[in-house]
Write a structure and sequence with these properties.
disordered N terminus, 14% helix, Lipocalin, ten-stranded antiparallel β-sheet, globular, single chain, mainly beta
């Protein structure tokens, strides 16, 4: 009888713990190109000229992500060289361009060919890159590149490392004139930052975005969140250049740092959690500052994300 009561008590405890923690396990389908994920850094003396959307850039570095996205880091445009003053040396501006790719095994299964949409084919074997521009039969060879595999350090990071589509967003703002109650808005589908700012002002609670704020927010509609196993964090927008930086995971705390990139609503550093409430679904829940008209507010951004 005592054994039966003990078993019943154990069963009740397990049921209670399961109820408190919600779903005990979720699955995220394997990312589409996880086996060919690599970073490619070109020798500083040998930048590769690539034409993207009608403009030729000097490519410095490329990441072929775990989920079929090419992160192309480019310098100043070809044909428009800048001549920095010798007294004040300047670093060339680095811009990120994101394009989808598919990968095929080449070189007797020792390398990969990456077909990047609208850009061309990159064949990588060892530390050699052979690039064939889109629409061309001629190729360019670059030797001495630094090429590294991207390997997730854990199952959690493997699940995180992919291109996520934003399903819905909740933005909360409080502090200053808004007080501790603040304001909050849920947005289904695309998150339009200027639309949110206009809505926030319309609540007549004292928050006001400057003309400059609105100019910086105009056109920024969040499209995807890209996370890679080498700790790159990217936010892509419809019709605007991405924001990019790094991410970190310490215990259960997720954070990202966009450096100097950003605007009044999405900027700098943010800290919070990255969890998986359902299969193939994630929740990015972070706190960061929001600046409106020179006043700093406490912001919170909750993004419900769907795996491709």
């Amino acid at each position: 009888m005592k054994k039966i009561l003990a078993l019943l008590s154990l069963g009740a405890l397990i049921a209670l713990l399961s109820a408190c923690s919600g779903k005990t396990s979720v699955s995220v389908k394997e990312a589409s190109t996880v086996k060919s994920a690599k970073t490619v850094e070109l020798p500083s003396a040998k930048p590769l000229d690539v034409e993207i959307d009608g403009t030729t850039y000097h490519m410095k570095k490329t990441t072929f992500t775990e989920d079929g996205e090419t992160l192309i880091y480019v310098g100043i445009e070809e044909g428009t060289p800048e001549t920095p003053s010798p007294e004040v040396p300047e670093e060339p501006e680095i811009k990120l361009i994101v394009k989808p790719f598919t990968a095929d095994v080449v070189g007797k299964a020792t390398g990969f060919a990456y077909n990047v949409e609208g850009v061309g084919k990159f064949e990588i074997i060892g530390n050699t890159i052979q690039f064939t521009p889109a629409g061309s039969s001629s190729s360019i060879t670059v030797n001495g590149a630094t090429i590294k595999d991207i390997v997730a350090g854990s199952d959690l990071i493997a699940n995180m490392s992919r291109s996520w589509t934003v399903l819905s967003s909740i933005i909360s703002v409080k502090g200053a004139a808004l007080g501790s109650a603040g304001i909050q808005k849920k947005i289904d589908g695309t998150l339009d930052l200027l639309e949110f700012a206009t809505w926030a002002e319309g609540q007549n609670k004292g928050i006001s975005f400057s003309v400059k704020d609105k100019e910086e927010l105009s056109g920024y509609k969040v499209k995807n969140i890209i996370i890679t196993g080498d700790k790159t964090f990217v936010i892509t927008f419809t019709g605007k250049d991405p924001f990019y930086g790094t991410w970190n995971l310490s215990s259960s705390t997720f954070s990202y740092d966009l450096g100097n990139l950003g605007n009044a609503i999405i900027n700098g550093k943010a800290t919070g959690t990255f969890t998986f409430p359902e299969d193939n679904t994630a929740l990015l829940d972070v706190k960061a500052t929001i600046t409106a008209g020179g006043t700093t507010y406490e912001g919170r951004l909750e993004l419900t994300l769907k795996a491709k």
